[in-house]
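Sample entry (765 residues):
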Amino acid sequence: MKKIQWSMQLKKQFILLLHIVFLGLLLTGFSFIYLNSNYGRGLSWIHEESYADTFAFKELLEDDIEKIFQYVNYKDVFETDGEVDYSKEMVSVTFNSGKTVVYTLDALMRYAKGMGYYLDDSYEVAGGPKSPSMDEVAYPQINWKAYNPDEQYNEPGDAYASLEELSVEVLTLLGEYYRIQFNYVAKPSNLYFQVFYMDDSLQDNLYTNAAGRSPDELKQLGRYLYISGETILMDTNMKYIPDNITSLLEKYNLYSNNNYYIVIALDTTYPYEDDYSKANHEYLSIRIDYITGLVLLGIGLVGCLITLACLLPISGYETRKRDAVRLHGFDKLPLELNAVLFLLALYLASLLSEKVGYRFLHLVVDNHYWNFAERLLLDTLIYLCCLTEAFSLVRCYKAKVLWTNSLLHSLYQWIIRYLTGVSYPFRLTLTFLGYLLVNGVLIAAFSYLFTKQDLLSFSLFYLIPAVAIICFNIWVFLELLKNAVESEKISKALYNISSGDTGYTVDVDVFTGRERQLAEAINNIGSGLDAALQEQVKSERLKADLITNVSHDIKTPLTSIINYIDLIKREKVQDEKIQRYLEVLDQKSQRLKTLTEDLVEASKASSGNLKLEISDIDIVELVWQTNGEFEEKFEIRHLEMICHFPDEAIIIEADGRRLWRVLENLYNNAFKYAMMNSRVYIDIFKEDNMVYFTIKNVSENPLNIRADELTERFVRGDVARTTEGSGLGLSIAKNLTELQGGTFTLYIDGDLFKAQVGFPIKVKA
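Predicted structure, serialized as tokens:
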């Protein structure tokens, strides 16, 4: 077992070490890219341009063009017939005594040497006066300068200078002349130029370091720029045009014509070592560094992601079976305390970086890169802190204690236990106030840190409350959405149960809190109703079966009794007393026979176990026939039938025998229970696509019963049961009517009884 545990631990340590290595590669690659002069230019420049197409080349070329035109100017100032002429007049001054002196180049050079000045190997002015002289305090007025004839003196003091200042100024210009001549004329250069002017006497003045080459030959070297005074168009293949070339070309044109041109050409094979070859080599090195940085960045990023993907599944496990999660001491802390310690670690990382890390970096890093190195160090420490915190949260999540081990969860559970016993409005009010309080605190923290971000050691601290606000409100929304979904499920369950689906249940596992209690109560209600309905259905079925069985059992002996009574009556008994007994027996046996037949028919009608023979029936004619059948019977109780029938025939689709039984039961009901010497109203009328038959009478006894109870079996309107009847007539009539697709409705208003039977009218084809 120890071997397996050590293997898992070693595996995690090895992957973590790889992650750190890849992180180092990522940071190294990012440093290569960020510190590169081409940072921010994207990737296209790597394979689409050369050094001669860069903006840096343009800047260097502009500087060299400036020097070339300075050389043109210095050549006219210092040379005669291509050689430096020390006898050339340089400056004219007037002393305070009124004496005007013109100083030649030789005089100024000798004066500068006498003062201790000279040109070093770089043609820079060096040395200086070793002892003060009277000339140093003499400031003659400048009349003109040969090297700057157009100089303007805006202030009175600008027109005065000492001989030392003038000699140093001329010596500086001479050194510049020597330096330009050496770098661009005497020494081989990759940059070639030709500046051509034609004076007013049509004499050519050519300044070049490419003697013997024509402009067309120079254009073949690589990059070139050709400008002629005869046109405003430029002939060039350079990506960036120097901004100063046209103005300088016009500035140094001392003649009143446009007979001039300039050719600038760069040999892009760089055969000579000069500033351009060095810049090109540096550019190539920069590009290689950039590509190297991209490769390292890609390898480091992919490696970091892969190692993280490998660490996440095994984090927290000690064995390969991954059957238990091992939590460190830091992981066992409540989530909120864990977060506070994480923020404290970020603060300490920032503080240590500033107090210790930055000072160490300043010892080993060039000051040009201090800001980048400081930020890189801080971001690395922050990343390591975040990585530690992230894996702590992962372990807690795997152990399923991330939420349950938090103070908020404990507070939430306490609040739930407290609020369970209070009313819903009070719970809702407290919840809303808590929501406002949390949002208010987070918004206040964000506002405060946002205004103080410049004073924070880590400028992104103000984003933490902002992220907390977003996460909190998303959590609230998800909770509200979950409650809405749970309420919708509860509403659906109530609707289904109220619609008769008493077997409908909800999955209580998806509910929480009060909604879970409601879901459990709904399931209990549904199961209780379903059990009650099942019991009722069972009771009704047993009752119907009992009635049917008893009826069948009674029918056989009853038939025998009726037959024997009939046989006795055939014996012509003379005794009147016995004849009365036989008459009573005959009546009671016939009533019992009718009762058993009604019981069987009622059972079949209620269960729908009847075979119907549907045909076209004229209901008006059928009712007239029924009136004829019961006319004599109604006269026994002095009942008068009042009929209102339409003259036309009304055809319906029904079973004639069953429909006759419905009418017979209704007429018998009126005969039995209508008040003697009263009227019975019988009507037939059409309404929409229906035809309705109604029979109304005034009851002889008070109707202390609901109308719907009269259609139940064994129920009669007179509770005392003083009349004959089985109590099944109306129940049979209703069931038979509904089996044929009709409607059967009873109405009771005081002693008024009304029965209404409706059928759809058959549409004529």
